[in-house]
Amino acid sequence: MSSGSGEVVAAPASGTADGHSNGAGGASAQTNNPLSRKLHKILETRLDNDKEMLEALKALSAFFVENSLRTRRNLRGDIERRSLAINEEFVSIFKEVKEELESINEDVQTMSNCCQDMTSRLQAAKEQTQDLIVKTTKLQAESLSFHI
């Protein structure tokens, strides 16, 4: 299945690399071969319809630029380091958001305390002036009765 140049030539599903059937049940042997099944599954995959796969391939192509033995061996570690860096960045940003929310919470608590203080002062002022208002109303009523 390979030529002298190191290229891999895919064999037709019904026979050998030259297109002839070998007469030994080649098609059924190929479907039983796990590598052949995986290869057929990959070749039959429609990437233009699988948006998640396209996004994953785009992300992978951003940092997997050279197809060498070393990069393939280090791919898992590179992906894990990239994932760790992304998670650390997320934690850092989330920490900033948390600190801002805590600051907002403190401001809201301060405003709430001020509102409670003003409410109690208004209530105290109302209680203190209630007697004065009642007396003023009585005096006004008496004054009107004297004028009549």
TrEMBL record:
Subcellular localization, as worded in the UniProt entry: Golgi apparatus membrane
Keyword Transport: yes
One GO cellular component term: Golgi membrane
Domain Conserved oligomeric complex COG6 N-terminal intervals: 60-143
Full protein name: Conserved oligomeric Golgi complex subunit 6
Subunit structure: Component of the conserved oligomeric Golgi complex which is composed of eight different subunits and is required for normal Golgi morphology and localization.
Disordered: region residues: 1-37
Bilayer topology: Peripheral membrane protein
Entry function: Required for normal Golgi function.
Organism from which the protein derives: Rhinolophus ferrumequinum (Greater horseshoe bat)
Family of this protein: Belongs to the COG6 family.
